[in-house]
Amino acid sequence: MRADYRELDTTKTYLITGAAGFIGFWLAQRLLSTGCRVIGIDNLNDYYEVSLKQARLDRLSQTENSSLFTFLEGDIADQKLVNTVFSIYQPQIVVNLAAQAGVRYSIENPGVYMQSNIIGFFNILEACRHSYAGAQGVEHLVYASSSSVYGANHKVPFAEGDCVDHPVSLYAATKKSNELMAYTYSHLYQIPATGLRFFTVYGPLGRPDMAYFSFSRKIMKGEPITVFNHGDMYRDFTYIDDIITAVVRILGNPPVKAGVRHKVYNIGNNNPKQLMCFIETLEKALAQATGRNIATEKVFLPMQPGDVHRTYADTAELERDFGFQPGTSIDEGLLRFAEWFTGYYSY
Ligand SMILES: NC(=O)c1ccc[n+]([C@@H]2O[C@H](COP(=O)([O-])OP(=O)(O)OC[C@H]3O[C@@H](n4cnc5c(N)ncnc54)[C@H](O)[C@@H]3O)[C@@H](O)[C@H]2O)c1
User: Fold this and answer.
1) For burial by CB atoms within 10 Å, which of 37, 65, 221, 311 has the most?
2) Is residue 227 situated within a structural domain?
3) How far is the CA of 24 from the centre of ligand 1 (A)?
4) Which atom of ligand 1 is least distant from the CA of 75?
5) Does any ligand 1 atom lie closer than 6 A to the CB of residue 330?
6) Is there a domain that residue 286 lies in?
């Protein structure tokens, strides 16, 4: 653990972009429960069901300390809006989670990635920079990167110092660009910034565009599921609570003052699972949650463009600096997901 480690400061204002998203919602919930003031922005786009984004916001409006939460519907690609939000609310800690996610979607819809992930992130950086006009300013910018920056790297586990110059999707290229842009702003304007390379995050109120979610729908409807690369894929699945615990530890601890105040961490499980093993565990969890027998037909297909064979996080740096390593097993995490999923969709 860092010698200067500080607990979360509940006197600060936290701005979360993408607050109606999966990770943003759970982060807002955790910060509110500890008594922090949270400002959330989200454009509520329809990349996946808007009703789920709304359900997350409804939960936040009913949660403990909900009066500390302000939600603003807006787009981070709108520079005027971003600047207005910064000048009105003056956040000290900014967490940029708003982005167009998804690897396969970026093949068909590249433009939206440039808007949200590049222009949007640029607007956040500029707003952080100009918030330094007086003695007060943004004390820490934390932003989502992704394990996809490792592309088709063969060396495992993936460590933060590995070469990440060969992204295999535009999504990955925008995330790597975010790391470079944040580094430059830290270098030029001394903005303390931390990038988080998340590894396949799953859990209750998760993202319907992700494979485990569509598998769950098909399993419950008794339809066959499509498994790419004939099931020979490994993912370092990370349970949402682990992600949030790591993020919360990082928020109050910007990179130390020596040199450029920019740092990147992997947040993954350090324990990749073969896709077929993950599917079997999911089937068991759904069976347990519903008390039904489950037997699903699998259709095996080749690898999809932009996909990678394996993700595997080296989490030594996170553990060294923050004394934390994600550790929720997929049995436990998928059961919690299955209980929520089958209840929410009334299966
Ligand atoms: N979930 C994962 O497994 C995972 C893995 C790696 C990286 N990430 C990154 O973590 C972040 C959060 O991911 P998530 O899983 O919560 O995704 P999510 O799609 O559920 O959340 C993102 C939210 O941002 C909003 N948004 C998108 N573009 C916006 C814009 N231009 N302006 C305002 N709001 C906008 C969306 O409406 C959405 O609610 C993203 O940056 C994503 O790329 C997630």
Assistant:
1) 311
2) no
3) 8
4) 32
5) no
6) no
Q: What is the CATH number of the domain that holds 70?
A: 3.40.50.720
Residue with CA closest to ligand 1 atom 9: 144
Host domain of residue 179: 13-202+238-268+309-321
DSSP string over 84-114:
HHHHHH--SEEEE------STHHHH-HHHHI
Q: Which of 48, 143, 150, 171 is catalytic?
A: 171
Q: Is the whole-model pTM more than 0.85?
A: yes
**48 catalytically annotated:** no
Best residue for ligand 1 mutational test, from 17, 45, 267 (most atoms within 8 Å of Cβ): 45
pLDDT, averaged per 10 consecutive residues of the chain (347 residues), comes to: 93 98 98 98 98 98 96 98 96 98 91 98 97 77 97 93 95 97 96 97 97 95 93 94 98 92 96 94 97 93 86 96 94 98 96
For residue 172, the model assigns a pLDDT of 95
**Residue 274 located in a structural domain:** no
Q: How many domains does the chain have?
A: 1
CA distance 118 to 147: 18
Classify residue 2: in a domain, yes or no. Answer: no
Q: 48 with 205: CB under 8 angstroms?
A: no
H or E segment at 225?
strand 225-228
Q: What's the pLDDT at 230?
A: 87
